[in-house]
Amino acid sequence: MALLDAESVSGTVALVAGAAAPTNAELIELACRQFGREPPRIVADPASRLQETDLYVPYFGMGATLDDARARELLGPLGLTAPPLRGYFRHAIDYAERARWGKRQITREAAAASA
Fold first, then answer.
1. Would you list the DSSP string of the chain?
2. What pLDDT digit, counting tens, does each position of 92-113 carry?
3. pTM for the full model?
């Protein structure tokens, strides 16, 4: 929102986690803790358990990091940084559950009141 009012900003600004993006292992750990589940066993040979998903296996082995340098350059002087997912994951899932994963509309006020 801060960048929308900045007339001097033009072009693309990638608002992504960049180097601070959570790993698949961290996402699994956060989700399992949130839902009270044991973490799944990750198999070394994807073909042994995931024959139908061969199309998607390469995406899990990608080491890509999206570049957030311009966003940090523009937002840093304003004191704005992206918080780590670990700090708000529980709140995001709580909201998603209250909204029935997008099937029920919730106002900002109602969401804030129930937080």
1. -TTTT-TT--S----S-GGGPPPHHHHHHHHHHHHT-PPPPPPS-HHHH-GGGTTTHHHHT-------HHHHHHHGGGT--PPPGGGTHHHHHHHHHHTGGGTS---HHHHHHH-
2. 999 999 899 989 998 888 888 8
3. 0.66
